[in-house]
User: Fold this.
Amino acid sequence: DLLTADETSVRDVHRKYFLLKQIPKMKPKPTSFVPKLTLMLGYDSGHASSLTVMGLASNASIQMAAVQALLSFPQLPQKQKLSIILKGKEVLGKEENKQVKKRIQALLQAMKK
Assistant:
């Protein structure tokens, strides 16, 4: 529920980000997360717009963490994976923070392999 709940602070955005980062490590992965992760691809938060020192609480960081989590589910159809990669490219085009942009580019490179 934390994934799709409204946040009231940047701290809540960080909690979402760190939860998203844990999903690829889970064994077994709960397939019930896939619909919620897909919703996170359209994530947009006013609280996320002000970057912290760590640069994690941006909309692009949340979206790309959702992309990574989705791609860690081996049962995803290839068509869905391609649409996720396209979303990553779209996010990259909108992102202005250089550190976040580097992380997105690295992720897109990893997805091509």
Q: What stands out?
A: The two ends are 32 Å apart (CA to CA). The mean pLDDT is 78.
